[in-house]
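Worked example
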Amino acid sequence: MSLVVRQKVGERGGTAIGTALRLARYFSNSPEFWLNLQGRYELDSFWLYGGKRSLL
């Protein structure tokens, strides 16, 4: 596994477009997959950890 992949797996924070492109190339899938995965994770975390209260 490349250094970039190992760093991103343990890192907290959003997946940048450049990282999504690198991950897609490494794992032979699409950058959209990684960006959608990150977006889904962030939305799920928001709702799981009290997102409704912070919207008021």
